[in-house]
Amino acid sequence: MRAVLATDLSDAIETALSSRTCLECLERYGIDQIDLVTVTSPNVTAGMPGSDIGARTKRGLERQRRMLEEEGFDVRTHVMRGTPHRRINGLADRVKADLVIVGSRGQSPLEQRFIGGTAKNVARTASRPLLVQRILEHGEEDHEVAAEHLFQRILYATDFSENAERAFDQFQHLKHAAKEVTLLHVAPPERRPGSDPDAVADAEARLDELAAELGELGIETRTVVREGAAVEEILAAEKEFEPTTILMGSRGRSRMRRLLLGSVSEDVTARAHCNVLLVPPTGVR
C-alpha cells in the first residue's frame, strides 16, 4: 500500500518521522511505499543569485527520506511549487495513494488546538483517506506527537450513512493495529433518546452488529449511544475514552464545486486533541 506524506521539512514533522512507533503503526496499516512531498511557494525562486533555498530543500528532503528508508519503506521524493493542498491531493490521485498523511500542530498542549491552514485545505479537498496527525508544540524547538500508537485505540463516530460505512471499511486495514475500538452514535436533536426509545434501540442494535464484525477481527469493542450535539458529544467521548485516533467519514456539499467537509467532521478535526482519520465519499475524485 502507498501513502503520500506531506512535509514542510520542519522540526515538528521530523519529530513524527523519528518516532519508530508511529512508523510501525503505518506498517501495520499496510503502508510499505511512501511518496514524501514538500510544496514550495510559487513566489520563491530557488534559482535566484545567492539563494540556496533549493539546495536546503533538497537536503532536508533527503534527510527525511533516509529516516523513512531506515525503517524499511520504499520512498520517492517530490519537490513541487504551487498551492500546497492542490499539489498534495493531486499527487495522491496521480499515484493512487491509499492514504494521505499531513501533520497538524497545536498551539499548546494546554490550549485548544486549531488545525493548520494546509491540513484543513487538504481535508476539505481530499479524495482519498486522510490521516491528520496531531503534533504538540511545547516551544519553538520542542515537539511531540500526540499519540505514538496511531491506531491503537480508535473512536469511530457513525451516523449510519453510506459515507460512515465507507469509513468503517478502514478496519480492514486497521485490524493489525487497532486493539480497542469505541463505536459511537450521537442521536440527532429530532431523535433524542428520551423522546424516541425505538430509535435508540435501533442504534444500539446496529452498533452491536458492527461490534460483532470487529470481534471477529479480534478487536475489543464497546458501543456508546449519546444524546446531544454531534461535535460536542464526539469530543466528550474523546476526553472520556482517550482514543489515539478518531475515525469518521467526511461528506462533500457539492460535486461541482470544491469538496467541503461536513460541519461535524470539520469541527471535530479542528478541535480534537488526538489524530483524525477522515474518509471521503465514494466516487469523489
TrEMBL record:
<feature type="domain" description="UspA">
    <location>
        <begin position="151"/>
        <end position="280"/>
    </location>
</feature>
<dbReference type="InterPro" id="IPR006015">
    <property type="entry name" value="Universal_stress_UspA"/>
</dbReference>
<protein>
    <submittedName>
        <fullName>Universal stress protein</fullName>
    </submittedName>
</protein>
<dbReference type="Pfam" id="PF00582">
    <property type="entry name" value="Usp"/>
</dbReference>
<dbReference type="InterPro" id="IPR006016">
    <property type="entry name" value="UspA"/>
</dbReference>
<dbReference type="InterPro" id="IPR014729">
    <property type="entry name" value="Rossmann-like_a/b/a_fold"/>
</dbReference>
<feature type="domain" description="UspA">
    <location>
        <begin position="4"/>
        <end position="132"/>
    </location>
</feature>
<comment type="similarity">
    <text>Belongs to the universal stress protein A family.</text>
</comment>
